[in-house]
Design brief:
- This protein is α+β, with helices and mostly antiparallel strands.
- The protein is built from 15 helices and 14 strands.
- Strands 6, 7, 8, 9, 10, 11, 12, 13 and 14 form a nine-stranded mixed beta sheet that branches. Strands 2-1-5-4-3 form a five-stranded mixed beta sheet, with helices on both faces.
- Helix 3 packs antiparallel against helix 6 and helix 12 packs antiparallel against helix 14.
- The longest helix has 21 residues.
- It is globular and about 65 Å long.
- The model has no long low-confidence stretch (mean pLDDT 95).
């Protein structure tokens, strides 16, 4: 079963590649670090072709030994450290990811995955390698992982230089006021707004919807449903595209989860489903059950879900508290969740039919056709690493199917109708608590992703927590300097 979807025109052989690049002199390549930052470079065509034919090229491992601001981790980790001399990894070029960058004179571009030069095994923390393992596992069980991602993001009339000069305060929003789904507000910055959509299509990223969201200068872009691997690639590259296009229009888009304390944050909602061996939606009901729903459904909310879909949902809910750093990887991301339903951001292990207040929204008949049955996981913010988020959701869901897990709590509507009920489980409220839950012995994260990944990624999150705990914020100075 296919586990990826190649881009249009992607070469299938070295001969195809040579023909594709016949008029080019250089190629851009990039891999992804644990923070979801693209790390790459230009290569001469000859160097690139040689690397492709030989299985890859050397790439400094330090990108897995430092944080998003290139500071070496407080505690050195196994992949890259002083003892191994920050040695090279093997960067293997994925020909199926070919595209051209339209705002860079159509230079050819490919993504890479990282491998251990001694064992040739995927390194434990490579985001693309982690997701590849997850989708291959699903394929071994006759399932294809399908997904879509929606990004909400603030946009500012700033440049990286002006934002730094202002110390990232008093930034000017692209548009004023709260205007979700506004046709009028996009008239103020038509060139930028249209360029995001149009350049995406040229860059091989299909867009399903593109509009303003509530908040000053906020946009939302929904990326079209596709295979999980292609979706993660598209999601990470959409951020790159938005920031690149923004530079050309004097706009600074931000995928930070919660830039303003008194405004809704920016979500990175993830839609997921499984395709079975016959190409059908594994979450939808059989023809016999489609009119009246499944008689043995656990709850009314899951009546139009297949039994496999219910097991998948139970798996996601069971493991959600243990994989939170994979969905919400930053200090700031948890501030988006603090407000809970007040800010359309779930902070508990909840689910419900067509409920935007729940962590997992069930989208099924009667509101959509059976073929569109899916789950929307609403916990991640726009700052997520899409490879890790998709990996966590699908791996937990497949665990639920393998163990035939049952739903143990009622849907969110029960708690809303009877708020005195206490069995709802709250999600971790900080990156520190989330990391402790993920790294504890016997966690579900360790069960499904292994100790090597959890120890490495967990240590990178501990680094973030340590930096935060030693930082002195403007809020502290304003509150305590005079009166303490």
């Amino acid at each position: 079963m296919a586990t990826t979807s190649a881009t249009p025109g992607a070469p299938r052989s070295i001969d195809d590649l040579k023909q594709l690049l016949c008029d080019d002199v250089k190629v851009k390549v990039a891999g992804i670090d644990v923070d979801g930052v693209l790390r790459g470079k230009f290569m001469s065509k000859d160097k690139f072709l040689g690397a492709t034919a030989s299985g890859g090229f050397g790439f400094c491992s330090v990108i897995f030994g430092w944080d998003m601001h290139d500071s070496v981790y407080t505690r050195e980790l196994a992949i890259s450290n002083k003892d191994n001399g920050y040695c090279d990894l093997i960067a293997a070029i994925d020909l199926s990811t070919f595209r051209r960058i339209p705002w860079e004179n159509n230079v050819p571009f490919f993504l890479v995955s990282f491998f251990d030069p001694k064992t040739s095994a995927p390194i434990c923390a490579d985001p693309r390698g982690i997701l590849r393992k997850v989708v291959d596992n699903a394929a071994a069980h006759g399932m294809e992982c399908i997904s879509g991602v929606e990004f909400e993001y603030f946009n500012f009339k700033e440049t990286p230089e002006s934002a730094a000069q202002k110390r990232f305060t008093q930034l000017e929003p692209l548009t004023p006021g709260m205007h979700g789904y506004s046709l009028l507000r996009t008239q103020l910055n038509q060139d930028y707004f249209h360029a995001l959509f149009d350049e995406s299509l040229k860059f091989g990223i299909d867009i399903e919807g593109h509009h303003t969201e509530t908040g000053p200068g906020v946009l939302e872009t929904a990326l079209a449903y596709t295979s999980a691997m292609r979706m993660a690639d598209n999601a990470i590259l959409y951020k790159f595209l938005a920031k690149s296009v923004g530079l050309k229009h004097g706009v600074l888009p931000s995928f930070m989860a919660k830039p303003w304390g008194n405004l809704p944050g920016c979500s990175g909602h993830v839609h997921v489903s499984l395709k079975d061996g016959e190409g059908g939606n594994a979450f939808s009901l059989s023809d016999a059950d489609r009119d009246r729903g499944r008689v043995n459904a656990a709850f009314e909310d899951t009546r139009y879900l297949s039994e496999i879909g219910e097991h998948f949902l139970a798996g996601v809910l069971d493991g959600l508290p243990d994989v939170m750093p994979m969905l919400v990887p930053t200090i700031n991301g948890y501030k988006r969740l603090v407000g809970g339903e007040a800010f359309w951001a779930p902070n508990a292990v909840t689910y419900g039919y067509d409920s935007r207040a729940a962590s997992v929204r069930i989208i099924s008949p009667p509101s959509v056709p059976p073929s569109a049955t899916r789950f929307e996981v609403r916990v991640p913010g726009a700052d997520m690493n899409p490879y890790f988020a998709l990996s966590a959701i699908f791996q937990l869901g497949m665990r639920g199917i393998a163990k035939q897990l049952k739903l143990t709590t009622p849907p969110i509507s029960t708690y809303q109708s009877y708020p005195a009920r206490k069995e709802v489980v709250l999600l971790p409220s900080s990156l520190e608590d989330a990391t402790n839950a993920m790294m504890r012995p016997g966690s579900i994260a360790r069960e499904v992703f292994g100790d090597d990944f959890v120890d490495h990624f967990g240590a990178t999150r501990e680094h973030e927590v340590r930096l935060w705990n030693t930082a002195v914020t403007n809020w502290e100075v304003e509150r305590y300097l005079e009166l303490a």
